Amino acid sequence: MVPRSDIEPVIASVVAQSVLNKTPVFKAGKEGEPLIVGPVVFRIVRHVTYTIYFMPARSIGTATISFGLVSIPTKLYTTNESSGDIHFNMLHDADGSRLKQQYICTKCNEVVDREHTVKGYEHAKGQYVILSADELKALDAVASQTIALEEFVPASAVDPLFVEKSYYLGPDKGGERAYKLIRDAMVDTGLVGIASYAARGKQYIVCLRPFHEGLIVHQLRYAQEVKPWSEVPMPDLPELKPAEINLAKQIIQQIQHETWDPKKYKDDVQERMMDLINKKVEGQEITVVPEAPAGKVIDLMAALKASLGMAGKDDDRKPAVAAESKDEAPKKKVAKKK
Q: Please, which pLDDT band fits residue 16 given cuts at 50, 70 and 90?
């Protein structure tokens, strides 16, 4: 049996060449002997992707933190791991060929090439003001690549609602000491930095905070981009009984943990999707699993008491079952007179 450490580099190289050249995959070693084709090639590609996951992160850009008169060169890294994402292509159901999108004019019903398109803003129904590419470019923010710190606030002051994206910040060459300085200073003070940042023609507001032994920067939404809570219609909520609150607290305490471990949560939908894809690639028959019926809570106290007994049983949790109403209660058998 060939050791895994010996064959993985060969597989990675061969599969990469196959994808680039659009040729069948062959095993390096015995000349002309084909590697397992079909569904197994698909699994190999996924395995190689999974192996790449452990490679050092590659910087997606640079930024300089402006801290008083101190400039700290840093490198930006994405926080998203997209190698496990499942992407679908739109195909023609008749022959399975891939489809392409086209722009069609709603007036003349002709296909319009991208070079003949312009951008317009609809200021009234069916009325547009057209902006040229030069006009739009003149409005773009100048990409300074500088994270200009403007204020420091308590970490709790930045509501997670405002966080849109996150990026890791690593020290660039020559900035290690200043990088550690600002990181440790924020740890000691319990504060995070709020800064402006211009990139890709846009102006952003960001939050800089310590993360593990380094820094992380959060791209924040502007105030006008967040809907106020006051827009949510709220009816008059009923008064709760002390017994109900106490039972709810007991349930919370039973499943309370000091820390949160994200690794214990899995994307079951994605796993089922990959299993379905593998089976279809292999030509297996697909069976649809029926949905579990969802129960309705009729008696709040009964549901709380039932939940209290189920709390903490992670392995065999079941959906809540509707509490029986008085009308549906089973009738007692009446003894027949002899």
A: very low
